[in-house]
């Protein structure tokens, strides 16, 4: 205990003396297992960090974990070195953040995708079910066969949240729609297995699906390729992936983790950083559907107005999208 | 195996691995130099990160504990001529056993009463997972390399299903069980030292490292001092000869695989009951595979396995430190360095043997001429 106290004292002295010279800003980021170039979730955070670096000229430190125990080690190490804020990426880091935040009350940590209730932790989560609802509507409106499909990464609650929102959106448009669902695998490699993703997508097309939504990190690239090869439609995830296969990418469900990372750094620079809980949904622009020059030919005016109307209704609270993670169940798929 | 040893034992067991490790580090140094960092500085950071201060040592020994268990698992199977690549899955399922018993009894028993039960549960579950490939190898001729790899995937699918649907803590978002009650988890090393009046930094290192050392002793006695050990080595050397000496090879294959699986299952004592205090997704994180390299490098001997585990533990911890210190060195380079060590100590283990044999022959000749 004494050691920790001494360290925190030393740390706060160091921080105090540093803040007299420059802004109290020394960002660090702990990426999770996927790595910072996963073309998806972690990379999106990386983009946010890079954008801030370009604009402000402030460099940041980073670490990519390779096993579970390194999460705590990395966050603690950054806290010891006076990093501020520490961006912690992914739900799996919650336990580590909880522990380190208690040991270093002066460290300020932004945790993305999960909630930790500590006075020095800012938790940012996303209402993926809302965004998935909108792309589910688009899928159902575009489908001619009355069958749409979903390819997830690992079968974990977070991915079921995407799946459940998608199903609700599709059913909102067409009550009798048939939804085929597959998960890629049961190991973390499921987030980066394009070949398996393509196989799953093709098998879904054989069973009648003509629109597929992938929430599977790097695996999605294979799904989009398979859709392009078979002349079907695919929906991207996390980043705007419409550009990957222009012409067959119906849309993307964008989840602005880059904005969450960028905002945390920006707020720290401006002195407005606050601990607490933020849920970024459609209302806050945290999730959305993507419309750009690559997919505008696929989206009719009718589809667009229906989706925008639903978006307004969700923001206003007139449409309630069930969140799988609120009770670990999905009535729409039971 | 049947090679005539012309080298003194210390050179065979000590010198050759040492030279191989140095060669691996030299090659890694070239890679580091190619990306524009100083290899000397990198080696310094790596060694200081692994052994230079109490936190580094703690993490190094924590990784070492896992590798000792999985290295022993691979070694026991190897003595029977079996290549058990399923340590990963056996450890994962062992975690299910340890987790179930800890979660069932954690409010009733303190850790010292729970530990023997957890060891039994972990090794039983690990053994059960290795039994099926062992049985298939012995009685159906399905090669154990293929089946154990497949069983890794089955284990991970089963665990994901259980963690997401059955064992998940109600109301929790991430797929893991509830935490085991604090009085029932293994004491961490910093708590033990604090009890003795010495302050060290908190690391995941816990009491299970002593379980690992005991397991080494157990394997040494088993392999070299018991009838089962004799039978295991016998079927590894020559199966037909084993039959003539009255050994039932099929039965021994199954037994060797089960012992191997039970040792792998003990990884969970370190991870589930010690470091993470819950069963989480993919908690083994590759220790089962690293165990293969550890056993190869340690020459399937418990003492060699301890040393090799220490080396790999240091590489894991020191490697993480490298990634901290150098922005140009990412975790991928750490994998490269580890791969080079495996290449030189495993695949090219005998490369230096010929030259060394000639060197020693020349030395002894000149000694004789002088004498």
3D architecture notes:
The complex is a heterodimer of chains A (334) and B (371). Chain A is of the alpha/beta class and 334 residues long. Chain A folds into two domains: 2-126, Response regulator (Rossmann fold); 128-254 and 288-333, Response regulator (Rossmann fold). Chain A has eleven helices and twelve strands. Chain A has helices at residues 2-21, 41-56, 68-80, 94-103, 128-142, 157-173, 194-206, 220-230, 257-270, 301-316, 324-327, and strands at 28-31, 61-64, 86-89, 109-112, 121-126, 147-154, 178-185, 211-215, 233-238, 249-255, 276-280, 287-289. In chain A, strand 1 (28-31), helix 2 (41-56) and strand 2 form a beta-alpha-beta unit. In chain A, helix 2 (41-56) packs parallel to helix 9 (257-270). The model of chain A is unreliable at 1-23 (pLDDT under 50). Chain B is mainly alpha-helical and 371 residues long. Chain B has a domain at 58-304: ABC transporter involved in vitamin B12 uptake, BtuC (Orthogonal Bundle). Chain B is built from 16 helices and no strands. Chain B has helices at 9-34, 39-51, 54-79, 87-105, 111-140, 144-166, 189-195, 208-225, 227-237, 239-244, 249-265, 267-275, 287-297, 302-325, 331-347, 353-370. In chain B, helix 3 runs parallel beside helix 8 (208-225). Chain B is globular, with a radius of gyration of 22 Å. At the A-B interface, strand 2 and helix 3 of A face helix 6, helix 14 and helix 15 of B.
Please indicate the percent range of residues of chain B in DSSP E strands (runs of 2 or more): under 5%
- CATH structural class of one domain in chain B: Mainly Alpha
Look up the CATH topology of the largest domain in chain A. Rossmann fold
**Architecture of the largest domain in chain A, CATH level 2?**
3-Layer(aba) Sandwich
The low-pLDDT segments of chain A are 1-23
Query: What is the CATH superfamily classification of the largest domain in chain A?
Result: Response regulator
**Overall body shape of chain B:** globular
Query: Structural class, from helix and strand content of chain B?
Result: mainly alpha
One letter per element, helices H and strands E, the order of chain B comes to HHHHHHHHHHHHHHHH
The CATH architecture of one domain in chain B comes to Orthogonal Bundle
């Amino acid at each position: 205990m004494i050691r920790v106290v001494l360290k925190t004292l030393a740390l706060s002295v160091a921080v105090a003396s540093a803040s007299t010279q420059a802004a109290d800003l020394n960002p660090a980021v702990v990426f999770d297992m996927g790595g910072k170039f996963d073309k998806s979730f972690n990379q999106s955070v990386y983009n946010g960090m890079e954008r801030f670096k370009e604009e402000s000229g402030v460099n940041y430190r980073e670490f990519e974990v390779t096993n579970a125990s390194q999460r705590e080690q990395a966050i603690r190490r950054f806290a010891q070195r006076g990093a501020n804020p520490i961006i912690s990426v992914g739900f799996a880091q919650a336990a580590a953040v909880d522990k380190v935040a208690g040991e270093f009350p002066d460290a300020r940590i932004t945790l993305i995708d999960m909630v930790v209730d500590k006075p020095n932790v800012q938790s940012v989560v996303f209402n993926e079910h809302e965004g998935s609802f909108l792309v589910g509507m688009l899928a159902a409106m575009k489908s001619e066969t009355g069958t749409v499909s979903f390819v997830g990464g690992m079968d974990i609650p977070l991915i079921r949240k995407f799946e459940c929102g998608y199903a609700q959106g599709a059913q909102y448009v067409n009550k009798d729609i048939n939804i085929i669902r597959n998960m890629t695998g049961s190991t973390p490699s499921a987030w980066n297995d394009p070949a398996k993703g393509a196989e799953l997508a093709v098998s879904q097309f054989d069973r009648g699906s003509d629109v597929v939504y992938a929430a599977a990190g790097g695996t999605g690239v294979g799904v989009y390729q398979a859709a392009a090869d078979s002349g079907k439609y695919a929906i991207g995830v996390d980043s705007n992936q419409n550009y990957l296969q222009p012409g067959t990418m119906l849309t993307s469900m964008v989840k602005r983790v880059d904005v969450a990372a960028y905002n945390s750094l920006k707020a720290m620079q401006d002195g407005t950083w606050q601990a607490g809980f933020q849920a970024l949904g459609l209302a806050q622009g945290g999730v959305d559907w993507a419309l750009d020059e690559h997919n505008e030919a696929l989206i009719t005016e009718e589809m667009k107005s229906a989706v925008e109307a639903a978006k307004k209704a969700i923001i206003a609270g007139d449409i309630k999208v069930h969140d799988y993670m609120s009770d670990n169940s999905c009535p729409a798929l039971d | 195996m049947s090679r005539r040893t012309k080298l003194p034992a210390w050179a065979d067991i000590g010198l050759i691995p040492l030279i191989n490790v140095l060669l691996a580090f030299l090659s890694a140094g070239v890679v580091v130099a190619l990306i524009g960092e100083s290899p000397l500085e990198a080696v310094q950071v790596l060694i200081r990160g692994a052994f230079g201060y109490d936190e580094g040592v703690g993490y190094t020994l924590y990784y070492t504990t896992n590798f000792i268990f999985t290295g022993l698992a691979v070694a026991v199977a190897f003595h029977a001529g079996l290549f058990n690549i399923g340590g990963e899955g056996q450890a994962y399922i062992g975690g299910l056993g340890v987790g179930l018993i800890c979660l069932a009894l954690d409010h009733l028993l303190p850790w010292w009463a729970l530990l023997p039960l957890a060891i039994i549960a972990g090794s039983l579950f690990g053994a059960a997972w290795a039994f099926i490939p062992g049985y298939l190898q012995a009685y159906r001729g399905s090669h154990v390399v293929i089946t154990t790899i497949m069983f890794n995937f089955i284990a991970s699918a089963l665990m994901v299903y259980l963690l997401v649907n059955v064992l998940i803590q109600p109301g929790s978002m991430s797929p893991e069980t509830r935490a085991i009650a604090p009085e029932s988890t293994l004491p961490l090393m910093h708590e033990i030292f604090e009890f003795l009046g010495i302050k060290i930094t908190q690391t995941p290192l816990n009491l299970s490292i002593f379980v690992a050392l005991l397991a080494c002793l157990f394997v040494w006695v088993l392999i070299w001092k018991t009838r089962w050990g004799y039978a295991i080595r016998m079927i590894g050397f020559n199966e037909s000869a084993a039959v003539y000496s009255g050994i039932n090879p099929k039965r021994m294959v199954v037994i060797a695989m089960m012992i191997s699986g039970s040792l792998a299952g003990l990884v969970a004592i370190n991870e589930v009951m010690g470091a993470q205090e819950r069963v989480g997704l993919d908690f083994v994180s590759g220790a089962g595979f690293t165990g293969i390299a550890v056993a190869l490098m340690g020459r399937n001997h418990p003492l060699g396995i301890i040393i090799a585990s220490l080396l790999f533990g240091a590489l894991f911890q020191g490697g993480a430190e490298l990634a901290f210190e150098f922005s140009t060195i990412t975790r991928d380079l750490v994998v490269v360095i580890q791969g080079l060590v495996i290449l030189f100590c495993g695949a090219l283990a005998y490369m230096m043997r010929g030259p060394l044999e000639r060197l020693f022959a020349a030395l002894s000749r000149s000694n004789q001429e002088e004498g």
